[in-house]
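Hi there,

I know you've been waiting on this one. I reran it after we fixed the sequence typo, so this is the corrected version. Both the input and the resulting structure follow.
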Amino acid sequence: MKNLLLTLSFSLLASAAPAAIISFDLIGTAGSGLLSGNEPSLNVATNASGGEIGAGIFFDNAINLLTINVGWGSSQGFNDLSSAASASHIHGPTAANNGSGFTQIAGTAFTLTRSSNAVTGGIFSPNTVTLSASQATDLLNGKFYINLHTGSNGGGEMRGFLVQVPEPTSALFGMVAMGALALRRRRA
């Protein structure tokens, strides 16, 4: 019984311990990435797209630092914009987690500068944002999205919600601990 309680306690602690670095993907109603189909409304139809480049998007919860490695356009391996980029932001927080199915809109939380305004591509730079404690909680609950605006689509041409990627090491560790618990129960 003592071993059973130790195993259970260990598995609960392992699954509850937060990772220092948390990875994120861009997700929306049209799928993964920074996509025009993720925008609620467009003035000009477009197939523009973008997404994670380099190291991707990650959050260091020890210092509340969000690192964004996102690009757009054919120079980055995605589809080109309908016209030159005019603004780029992180919007949030939305009222509901993951924007209630990635459909909600929110005000600008952070302005992102771009390496270029070119239709054919660019990246966001500088690529780090320091969050407050409440913003960090909202980020972890999927209440922020990246939005890229163009001259043709001033309200936004493409966007993607920042959604956590399950950290494989913690998930595997938790599954192993639960498997050990199941084996101990079977022997008892």
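Quick highlight: The two ends are 9 Å apart (CA to CA).

Best,
R. S.
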